[in-house]
Write a structure and sequence with these properties.
about 130 residues, single chain, 4 helices, alpha+beta, Double Stranded RNA Binding Domain, 5 strands, five-stranded mixed beta sheet
Length: about 130
């Protein structure tokens, strides 16, 4: 009985440990309703995946900025020696007139894919 309880507890921790955690923070509420977004992506792959999620414009008071970091491309000896729990992260930032309104981020293992981008963008769309 006691061992089965421990096994179920460990199984629960294992399952919840595999979920990707989204870190997010709202710094300020948008001053007007968000009806458009301008995209400023730091990586062509991220840009491509986001353009599949939304029809971005070039003239809009709101800018969605991306920050992508891929550890697997790092050649530092320290990174190779110590390893990492993740292979990279993607951060989305919503800006209005030079002020940061909202930020979210997800760490990922493997390659950046459309499910990661979709997860972050859907969280951002709750502000619309």
């Amino acid at each position: 009985m006691r061992y089965s309880l421990i096994v179920w507890a460990l199984l629960g921790l294992l399952i919840t440990g595999c979920e990707q955690k989204v870190y997010e923070k709202l710094y300020a509420k948008p001053s007007i309703k968000i009806t458009c977004l301008r995209l400023k992506a730091d990586n062509p792959i991220t840009e491509y995946l986001l353009r599949q999620e939304y029809n971005f414009t070039t003239d809009c008071p709101y800018t969605l900025k991306t920050v992508s970091h891929f550890i697997s491309t790092c050649t530092s000896a320290k990174t190779r020696a110590l390893g990492s729990d993740f292979d990279g992260y993607l951060r989305l930032e919503l800006w209005q007139k030079g002020g940061l309104l909202y930020r979210n981020q997800i760490d990922f293992k493997g390659c950046l894919d459309k499910t990661i981008v979709h997860t972050l963008f859907k969280r951002l769309q709750k502000l619309f």
